Amino acid sequence: MQDFHRIKRLPPYVFEEVNRLKAEARTRGEDIVDFGMGNPDMPTPDHIVEKLIETVRKPRTNRYSASRGIPGLRKAQAAYYARRFGVKLDPDRQIVATLGSKEGFANIAQAITGPGDFVLVPNPTYPIHEFGFIISGGVIRHLPVSTGSDFMRSVDHALRHSVPKPIALVLNFPSNPTALVADLDFYTEVVTYAKRHDLILLSDLAYAEIYYDDAPPPSILQVPGAIDVAVEFTSLSKTYAMPGWRMGFAVGNERLIGALARVKSYLDYGAFTPIQVAAAAALNGSQDCIDDIRGIYKTRRDCLVEALGRAGWEIPPPPATMFAWAPIPEPYRALGSLEFSKLLLEKASVAVSPGIGFGEYGEGYVRIALVENEQRIRQAARNIRKFIGEEAADTMHNVIPIASSQTRSR
Asked: Are 98 and 147 contained in the same domain?
């Protein structure tokens, strides 16, 4: 039997090999410190859980829900954008609740992409930014991710040398996996260019509340006129430690939101109503829990950078997100990120995500998720320090005999 057309367009999942080795190690009883998947380990705040329990006891909430999201939830998201970004949104026409930002991206790709349409995607990036469009029949043109003038030059070059002309540009700041952040000046330049060239902007702002500098990340919709060309995706997964709840949003341009909503209406009835009610409670209630969650990630970030630095692995502290984008230590760089990740798992019992899994320009890096507590981070650092030390000793052991034999031959 021949492979299905859409499946043939999807390459083997790079992370699968590391996941398989991780599962085998755990079957053998090994204790793996797992920094691989960005899966928050903190409990969801009590007031959100309590609202879920309260609502699920009401028999009517077991019925089908609303694909666009219940009105109260969309109003809560509009209120969030108003107080956080100063952006006014119409809950009925400019907001759709999604089953996490990943589903939103996949379905807007279905909504706007025709066979052979070009889409500009930064690289490295979160896989759905690329594969949502590939599954929909689109063609991807990669741009090295940055927030400088070189990025805009890459966009302009790609637009002028692609036939047909690209229909959309994906943005993701703070970035997964690189943790790069963007400012309003950058977004202003992008919006101006997009309006001039009739380019749709799709902004993934999933890490809006996970930042460590004084200035919180902005929304692209803060730029005057951005709503004419842009849709932005957010998620409650990291903000409120609600990853398994699968609750997110798409907001922005009315025509694009309408197209997304129409596709979704054929595919789902929305999230379980009690989850939507609890999500509204998260957005409307005390936001102190966000500060607490952000503080935990910052403490872990600082611990990771300090502990791995002492172990001999220098890692730049990420300014945002729950990830560190770590350059492979020089002695192992030639291995590549996949082989280094496998070696780290085998020799140090530490799991990370290989950079190549986020795109070709991710080679030379691994992504470390801040999903283990400080004690486990220090344990990982001890394992890595021992691994690096033993590897260095083995290298010296292998080099010395060669040098000695050369000396004797002279």
From this structure: yes
Q: Are residues 21 and 81 both part of a single domain?
A: no
Residues spanned by the domain of 118: 46-284
Distances (CA, A) of 92 to 77, 97, 110, 252: 11, 11, 21, 11
b/e code 320-336 from CB counts within 10 Å (16+ = b):
bbbbbbbebbeebeeeb
How many beta carbons lie within 10 A of that of residue 82, not counting itself? Answer: 12
Give every CB contact of residue 273 below 8 A, 6+ residues apart in sequence.
Answer: 55, 61, 62, 63, 65, 70
Contact criterion met (CB below 8 Å) for 328 and 364 = yes
Q: What is the pTM of this model?
A: 0.91
For the stretch 206-232, pLDDT in tens is: 999 999 988 899 999 999 999 999 999
| 399 within domain boundaries | no
Q: How far apart are CA 26 and CA 31, in angstroms?
A: 7
Residue 408 has pLDDT above 90, yes or no: no
Instruction: Provide the 8-state DSSP code for 63.
Output: S
Q: 329 and 272, same structural domain? A: no
